[in-house]
Write a structure and sequence with these properties.
Largest sheet: 4 strands, antiparallel
Radius of gyration: 25 Å
Number of helices: 18
Number of domains: 3
Strand order of the largest sheet: 1-2-4-3
CATH topology of the largest domain: Gyrase A, domain 2
Shape: flat
CATH class of the largest domain: Alpha Beta
Order of helices and strands: EHHHEHEHHHEHHHEHHHEHEHHEHH
């Protein structure tokens, strides 16, 4: 594991080598009548005084929002895909990760710290990982030899790689969210994840020691890591558990147009013809571009969806961080996704044999078992998304350039939602499927 503090924001005009001066000066705005530039200049001139101010405001008064003005950039290298997923669960941070879709992966994996200490034997783990990387190379050659384009061959061969495969990413996060992140990571059951949190805190404290207070984990932090087991396999891989109908958004659009109360708007909606309802939605979405968010009225629409997805598909799904998402452990009982290209190229036997060997090794690892499951293994995901988020999901994941696994899931989900709320999703769809302003 290698983590570097690549950068942080500082005062461009008055200098300084810490983001704390910006936090301190902005914190004073609410109570100090002087112009902001004067507050910034003073903070940069008297850094220790600025730090004392931060400690008083953040620690004593509990106004943690001032820490959001301090922003950090981290290089994170040589952590497992499994640990990367835990890090990327946090909503208010930005991540860019090395993609297994576009880069051919070398034999590079993480041995969990629980197996790599003195007196511990990681031989079986390493042998199983080597076997999966060997299978990756064989499958990649078979896919390439079958005429599959190089990028698609890499994309599909990776389904046999273990979640122990190492990755790297860039992360940008403000101090308040970093504090939350560090506290949560510190009580994770995996030592690798705990180590990530500890190093992030160590590096951030060197640059901004006055901004981190609430670092002791609570029972709620521990609960956040308690993934659901799988004791029952869902009948379908995509299930709409709950879905509002068109009246939710339609009533709000009427309220906006007519200026009436929500109750009156609901009565007006009930009396409208189908043609009038269609015109109402079309008027609201006139000129909607492919990259435009739909109006905020769509945020009042809600849907609860249960999915069973591969790790490869979840890698795309996890980027929709603003939705509410609950996940189970990865579990062989949910099956494994086999790309169609692997079956058609004659590589399916290699794939399934390798998956079986990985599951055998995983069964001996206790709580560390997910490290040896593959990108093809599945987990159950329960999501709550509002209508605005669903449009964004549709635009990205139904698009022809989307990864095929998540695209199939997105199209199945959106087809179900369109049947229940056809007007609400009248203009949903992948960017490649739609005509309109770009």
């Amino acid at each position: 594991m290698k983590i570097h503090l690549a950068g942080f924001n500082t005062d461009k005009e008055y200098g300084g080598d810490t983001p704390e001066t910006l936090s301190a000066s902005y914190a004073r705005i609410s109570r100090d009548p002087r112009p902001i530039p004067q507050l910034r200049e003073e903070a940069c001139r008297e850094v220790e005084k600025a730090r004392d101010s931060n400690r008083r405001i953040v620690f004593d008064y509990g106004h943690g929002s001032v820490a959001e003005h301090a922003v950090f950039n981290f290089d994170i290298l040589d952590i497992s895909r499994l640990a990367a997923e835990e890090l990327q669960n946090f909503r208010l941070a930005s991540f860019t990760e090395k993609s297994q879709r576009y880069i051919r992966i070398g034999e590079d994996f993480v041995i969990p710290p629980e197996l790599s200490g003195p007196g511990r034997d990681s031989t079986g783990f390493a042998e199983a990982a080597h076997g999966l990387f060997s299978a990756y190379d064989r499958i990649y050659r078979l896919l390439s030899g079958s005429g599959l384009p190089g990028e698609r061959a890499k994309e599909d061969a990776r389904y046999v790689l273990p979640l122990a495969t190492s990755c790297q990413m860039g992360m940008t996060v403000n101090a308040r969210e970093l504090e939350h992140m560090v506290r949560r990571l510190s009580c994770h059951h995996l030592a690798e994840v705990r180590r990530v949190g500890a190093v992030l805190l160590e590096l951030a404290m060197e640059a901004a020691p006055s901004l981190f207070l609430f670092l002791e984990p609570t029972s709620m932090d521990a609960f956040a890591h308690s993934m659901s087991p799988v004791t029952e396999v869902p009948d379908e891989t995509e299930t709409v558990v709950h879905c509002d109908d068109d009246s939710r958004v339609g009533t709000l659009l009427l309220q906006r147009r007519e200026g009436v109360s929500l109750g009156t708007a609901g009565s007006l909606w009930e009396r409208m013809t189908d043609e009038e309802r269609l015109a109402l939605f079309n008027d609201a979405l006139e000129g909607l571009g492919l990259h435009d968010p739909v109006p905020r009225q769509w945020e009042f629409f809600g849907a609860v969806i249960q999915l069973v997805v591969s790790s490869s598909a979840y890698a795309q799904l996890k980027r929709h961080r603003m939705c509410t998402r609950l996940v189970s452990v990865y579990d062989p009982a949910l099956g494994v996704t086999v790309p169609g290209s692997i079956a058609s190229s004659g590589a399916e036997d290699v794939f399934l044999e390798s998956v079986a060997e990985a599951e055998e090794c995983a069964g001996k690892l206790g709580t560390l078992f997910p490290y040896m499951l593959t990108n093809g293994h599945r987990r159950r995901v329960t999501m709550h998304m509002n209508g605005r988020e669903l449009y964004h999901f549709s635009r990205l994941r139904e698009d022809e350039h989307a990864q095929w696994d998540i695209r199939e899931t997105a199209r199945s989900v959106m087809d179900k939602l369109r049947r229940r709320a056809p007007l609400t999703f009248l203009h949903a769809g992948g960017k490649s499927d739609l005509d309109g302003p770009s």
